[in-house]
Specification:
This protein has six helices and two strands. It is mostly helical and 141 residues long. Helix 1 crosses helix 2 and helix 5 packs antiparallel against helix 6.
Amino acid sequence: MRPMPVFEVGGSLGAGMGGTGTVVTNQAVDPELAQEFVVFAKLSQEGAIRTWTDLGFDPVRWEVWEMDVMRETNAFTEYFGYGVFDMLLEMRDGLTAINLDERFPAAITLANSQVIFRVLDARDLSVEDALEMAADELRAH
């Protein structure tokens, strides 16, 4: 893991967007208990630490990034390298949220079905042309 390149002085060092959505569905036998567990697992200090030590994800609780346990060797330091949280702490103030609106699902679908497929698999369009076609289609929505 490394910071993204910065194209402007003072520009964003990255965008924060989680990849794991956690919900309690209407099939839960005890929805309140399930909700309490999700809150513990995702938001408690212990849950945040285990998000890293058990799953290899960066926890949403930034204060745990500073804890010694986050620097201990584990399977994820073998994969991502050492000092992940030192790097994240250095760039924390330069992380911004991405701008999502109602077109986001359509944009992802276009990227997957048009841009990636046509550029990498079919190879019938340049990256620039595929992105422009997808952008045009998205603007039409």
